[in-house]
Backbone:
């Protein structure tokens, strides 16, 4: 049997989004349901009674919907420099991150990856092996070989 952790109802029709949300929640026990609200006058309908955990106005960019519904903002590929074969990935340290409270020396980075900066309280800092990561830190990781998933696994 297939299962899902998240359903996003994002059609251009509010009625369809509500029906899909309700079915997902009640018939298929999907734990997290996000739905697009196309007409602001219908926003009051998009609540838990209709199976909607997160209602997102149509004017909100799709990436914001996905980030809010999934909490997927902890590791994001920011830039790919294809000629150089280099990726820049951002990963955020949360209280649940495996790296929280550890120094950079204690973390095994994927092959071909290095930490370019640690942004703490909005200020970029040059990292050293003694830098202790804290919840709220954002790391910019430069890599020519590591995937976004490998970087995520190292810190999250």
Residues:
């Amino acid at each position: 049997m297939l299962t899902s952790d998240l359903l996003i109802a994002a059609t251009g029709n509010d009625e369809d989004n509500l029906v899909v949300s309700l079915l997902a929640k009640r018939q298929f026990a999907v734990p997290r349901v996000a739905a697009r609200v196309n007409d602001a006058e219908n926003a009051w309908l998009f609540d838990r009674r209709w199976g909607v955990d997160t209602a997102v106005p149509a004017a909100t960019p799709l990436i914001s919907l996905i980030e809010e519904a999934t909490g997927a903002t902890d590791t994001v590929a920011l830039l790919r420099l294809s000629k150089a074969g280099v990726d820049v990935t951002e990963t955020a340290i949360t209280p649940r991150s495996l790296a929280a409270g550890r120094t950079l020396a204690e973390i095994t980075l994927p092959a071909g990856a290095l930490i370019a900066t640690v942004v703490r309280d909005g200020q970029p800092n040059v990292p050293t092996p003694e830098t202790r990561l804290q919840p709220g830190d954002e790391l910019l990781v430069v890599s020519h070989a590591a995937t976004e998933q490998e970087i995520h696994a190292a810190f999250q």
Summary: The mean pLDDT is 83. The first helix runs from residue 14 to 26.
